[in-house]
């Protein structure tokens, strides 16, 4: 290990914060207040470290802040950390959303607050570790351990069917990961190392690639989630507390996309191209099917959950075009979706905290009572649709360009999804915000308060920042993606 271990600090500072929270004494009110404060300050420190990494790291496609400690040198198993521009984007997204999760839970979570804050800090540790790992086994440990705190968050603080949703989430995601572990072991035996940096440019026999790729796909497709592996997501979102939905949509769905771009595509290039048609078909089905199902939803959370399935369909199309524009667009789409979907779930959470209902029919005419909320909701909804000038536009635009270069029908399928997305999102806004105020259910509802505005403000800034000046983020991952594409061209005989 050389230099300042900034990555280890980002990983273990939340653990240290969790330990401090566990040691807090006093009466119940004191414990609750101090737990919130410690968790918030801990997450802000980690956020500052991630911003420092962003400022420091060069945009040349190499791995930086590398740390390496041997565990079992005979098999190459090590504590290896390092980040490039691809990892950095997801780390920034993770460290940005955790403080917001703590703020939106400040009033809504009133029991077992100590445990709740501990779980979110542990979740932050595992998310950062997942994106920093440069050892396959270490990645797998962080990757799978993510299930545990999210399982507990849904199962303890979730809705009436929380136990069912938590177990469905756990079993679905665990199932695919067993195959992933087997594939990791086989790959390491072929290449002779677990070092991700070596595996990225290793030539694995094509026959072996064709067998390994479906195992990788099973795990990442469930995490994304792709159709038909998506059914756990609406249930998990509906039952999860607001902060749980924020992390689930904002970060955990991106782990699947990260897996594709970090492992499946660069390590198994021949198989990735061989199975690309399958990915295109499943992605287009996901976009159209999820959009049509979203049109039929009466629950706001479930509608946004199906919208997430559709948006991640765009991501997988972009990744498997194997073009600079497509993968740049997929990365931008994941970043935008992480921000916008998180914001939309917070918008639903604001209403739920006031009236304890997510049903669209229980609202209407909220513009009369909540004008500030109506404006905020409109911004994020338009970003979700992909309005030019917002974060949602640039990713979808780049993906459509690359999809058209691959196949015109692929682009048409994706384009139909954009139209359907506008339909269900605008219809949602019309029913909730406009029309007649439901005075029996929402007649006394209050507009957003100071804490909620503090949560929404940075999200709004990012929506327009990415939409107006996307280069500030695209420049971070352009070179790593270019390296992947060049490596693909060198190792695939077309």
Quick overview:
With 494 residues, the chain is mostly helical.
Structure, explained:
The chain has 494 residues and is mainly alpha-helical. It has a domain at 275-489. The protein is 76% helix and 3% strand. The protein is built from 22 helices and two strands. It has helices at residues 6-23, 28-56, 85-104, 113-132, 136-145, 147-157, 162-191, 196-199, 206-223, 232-239, 242-267, 269-274, 276-295, 300-319, 324-355, 366-369, 371-385, 391-406, 408-433, 439-442, 450-468, 471-491, and strands at residues 64-72, 77-83. It has a two-stranded antiparallel ribbon with strand order 1-2. Strand 1 (64-72) and strand 2 form a beta hairpin. The longest helix has 32 residues, at 324-355. It is globular, with a radius of gyration of 22 Å. The model has no long low-confidence stretch (mean pLDDT 86).
